[in-house]
Amino acid sequence: MNKKMKRMIYSFYAEKEQVSKPEETSNSKNASDCPPLHDALIEETIKSLKRELEDKWGKEREALQESNNFLKYELEKLKNSQEVQGNKIGELEKIKNSLESRICELEKENNSLKNKISEMEKNSTDQNNTFKNSIGHIQKEVKKANEENNSLKIRTEQIETNDSLRQQESVKQKQKNDKLEKTMNYLLAKTTDLENRSRRDNLRIIGLSENYDEKKSLDTILQEIIKENCPDVIESEGKIGIERIHRTPSERNPKIKTPRNIVAKFQNYQIKEKILQAAKKKPFKYRGATIRITQDLAASTLKERRAWNMIFRKAQELGMQPRINYPAKLSIFFQGRRWTFNETNEFHLFLKKKPELNKKFDLQP
């Protein structure tokens, strides 16, 4: 056992004694002056010290190893962090540069916007003034339009009033016209009736050729017709009194091939009626040609009578004994009684009520 080991052992025991008796410790003793120890105790003490040292050193070594590992980890981490921070710093510098350039651009845009705002404020002021002037002009126009509208309303009311008055006058005028029309129709009917009555002594001879006029007078021809067809009407002296006789119309139309009618006015109404009744019983003839003798009537009355022609012929075919009464009325015999109709419309309404008769006539209204 060397001196160095002994000093360590002594130091160990000395520490123990200082712990138990601190007032008796002394710092001036050397390892060579320590009391004598037994070798076994020394060995045991050495082993114990070794174990304690090994345990302490192992723990310290583990702690140091852990600290070393931690330091390595932290060092690596720091290195990585520095690299990342270096990259971030580069990126941040780039971002900083970009932001600085963007700030410059924004400052320029801001200045440009300020200039534009100034111009807009100026233009807005000008436009506002223009708008105010336009508003004033529009207000004047609106005022003028309102005045014209009021004027138009007044004129419209006047027109409506005048129109109402005109309508009232129109109603009155219509009433007057209706009254005048009734009066006119009455007067026309009266005039037609007077004309027909003025013709009551007249007979109309239809279908007599005008070639006979060249050889004989119409008076002589009429005397021969009466003598040939109804000799019993001839008066005792053998001649019928005729006031006047002539063709109608007075001038012949070359486009019309049929002969003109003859109108004869008799001096005696009864003689005229006898001749007319004889002509209704049988057709008259002259030199072998058939002629017709009818009552001479006004043109309007003849037109109204002609409207019955088709119905009249059909009624004759059916044996209904049709007659044309004065002035232009149709009379038929049906179902044991005689029916009279003033107009053709009345006859058509009558046919609608008589289906069996309507089928036989088959006429369009």
Automatic annotation (TrEMBL):
Residues 200-296 form the L1 transposable element RRM domain. Residues 17-26, 169-178 have a biased composition (Basic and acidic residues). InterPro entries: L1_C, L1_dsRBD, L1_RRM_dom, Transposase_22. Signal peptide: none annotated. Residues 299-357 form the L1 transposable element dsRBD-like domain. Residues 159-168 have a biased composition (Polar residues). Residues 17-38, 159-178 are annotated as: Disordered. This is L1 transposable element RRM domain-containing protein. It comes from Sarcophilus harrisii (Tasmanian devil). The lineage of its organism: Eukaryota, Metazoa, Chordata, Craniata, Vertebrata.
